Amino acid sequence: MNRRSSIAALLLTVVCAAAPAFAQQAIVIKFSHVVAKDTPKGKAADYFAKLVAEKTGGKVKVEVYPNSQLYKDGEEMEALQLGAVQMLAPSLAKFGPLGVPDFEAFDLPYIFDNYDELHKVTMGPIGKGMLKRLEPKGIIGLAYWDNGFKDFSANKPLHVPADFKGLKMRIQSSKVLDSEMRALGVNPQVMAFSEVYQALQTGVVDGTENPPSNFYTQKMHEVQKYMLRSQHGYLGYALIANKKFWDGLPADVRKTLDECIVEATNYGNDIAKKENDDSVEAVRKSGKTTIIVPNAAERLEMKKALVKVHKEHEGRIGAELIKSIYKETGFDPDKL
Ligand code: LMR
Description:
- This protein is of the alpha/beta class.
- The chain has helices at residues 3-24, 40-55, 76-82, 115-122, 125-132, 175-183, 196-202, 212-217, 243-247, 251-286, 296-312, 314-317, 319-329, and strands at residues 27-32, 60-65, 87-88, 139-149, 151-154, 168-171, 187-190, 207-210, 226-228, 234-242, 290-292.
- The chain has 13 helices and eleven strands.
- Helix 2 runs antiparallel to helix 10 and helix 6 (175-183) packs across helix 11.
- It binds (2S)-2-hydroxybutanedioic acid.
């Protein structure tokens, strides 16, 4: 063997030895979220990670970081855009600061009466169109994940709008939610989810709104004496990924991940209602929070006070988008 061919043989040996190690290196997807593991989103994320491990034979590893362990609200979206994490499932109320206020349509009080109405939007062309609007931000919208319908809570009994006057309440970073609270005479405070328990405990805020699953798993029942089963608005999520990362995945891997997303989405959306119902029961059993169920007249009074928020936000969200949602769900603000 001459010198040149022996170097070539040596190189070949090195390359061959390195190849299996390279092939074994898993693609890692960091998936950050802010809620407890034992919630609709927490369970769907863990289920997704399990499916991905199984279906890719370990080629792709999804590392789930729950409970704001890695990033909290306000940080996680930036981390995704910078590629520090690859996947998130932020609440639809948190896309406004990104410059996509369309998703705040989901925050409009009473726009959905139940999951069936909601799914007409999230599983139809309107929902798909909204996810597409994320692409110029370097984000790919992959699916909608359900949580549930929100209840108000405070340390005083709440029944009708007059009971809310002068309270300070924590909200997510949504202009619609800001208007919703102001319509009740509440002073809204935007705050990261991870800080809510302490803010309630120390009296920085008097109350808040959340689906029961978040309320219970964050132990808010320890620091809130009353919960009004107002079910006045929806809270759910968009499953999103860093677009550059996603587009750069090998096509077969992306296909498998897409299949896992469909399965995990069905799983999470199937358990969401029960998770919330179970949380209401757990709160009741704790004996720490009194659960107030409004009667028909009280519910109507709340609805009348809050539905005017829809009109206020036509300019930001788009009158056409709001109208197209009404058309899907049959909601008519003039018929209350
Ligand atoms: C909240 O901040 O109240 C929620 O968006 C938390 C969540 O992700 O469910």
